[in-house]
Amino acid sequence: MNSYKLDEERINFLKQLSESFGPSGFEREVIKIVKDYASRFADETKSDKLGSTAFVVKGLSEKPKVLVAGHVDEVGFIVTSITKEGFLTFKPLGGWFSQVLLSQRVLIRAKDKKVLGVIASKPPHLLKEDERNKVITIDQMYIDIGASSKEEVEKIGIRIGDPVVPWSPFSLASNNTVVFGKAFDDRIGAFLAIEALRYIVENKVVHPNTYYATATVQEEVGLRGAQTTSSLVEPDVAIVAEVDISGDVPGINPAEAPTAMGKGPSIVTFDASMIPNERLKEFVISVAEENKIPYQLSVVPAGGTDGGRFHLYKTGCPSVVIGIPTRHIHSHVGVLSLNDVENAVKLIVELIRRLDLKTVESFTTI
User: Fold this and answer.
1) pLDDT tens figures, 205-223
2) Which residues are catalytic?
3) CATH classification of 8-74+182-362, choosing from 3.40.630.10, 3.40.50.620, 3.40.930.10, 3.40.640.10?
4) Mean pLDDT throughout 56-69?
5) Cβ distance 34 to 152 under 8 Å?
């Protein structure tokens, strides 16, 4: 796979994923895009009742079941009220830092349309001196859609409970190796799982297992899709494809976030939801080194992934996280390197080629 490169079709698919509408609990549009694309390569497609969807490729043996999963929900918002003046109040779906929100455009999905709005608050010209020095929190913000009354908003079709996402077009940087866009957390993970599936099928890669490339839902609100996916797939080993916090920006100590964009995918040594299976982690490292795939070791002490549910399935499932170092996650615009994406696909494919039953059982043998 040393010559593997993302082509225009693959980048366009990533663009489509990034720009699609799918906050936690409202992922149907994204899942349909994934299903239309990935089902062409799969032997079988399976879905749970929350919406998580697995694409199955049968190898030389039914066992082990190898799960590679990325969640497709993005951090977003939900409308909580409509003021008499026609403004929308909102609450977050997933984790947001208030300071990244003001003056940012959003899309509200009404019954049969998407409506553009902007997040705003009391104008700074009218703030008292002591107010200007305080952080404006989400409960002090509102969404302006250009309406002048509650009746006008209701006529447009917006209601309490409607979902909201950032409006952020996908674009390539001038060097053509870095991309900007929303929802890389974690559409990039779903992309990795599906791209590995496509490569395996189109190149007739022999693998001694059954591969489940899976798009999960509702990760940002408590790893909910991972819990139901575990019952759907019944994995013997799980690889979570995720973003990682890229620490190569001003103000970050390398001890806080040791990975950097463009230096290879990360292998997460622990996070707040899971300590990875030690032998599986070492296996991933050895496969990366054997194939001269650059990698970085990472720690995410204040974050978690779907691995937090997968590794606790039934009596336990050896699990590990492979990440794409990404700048500015949980904001309107993330930044990542396509070189890291290519290397992550290579690593995942090489792992699937080697994960036979004896190897997987060795991860948990005492």
Assistant:
1) 999 999 999 999 999 999 9
2) 219
3) 3.40.630.10
4) 98
5) no
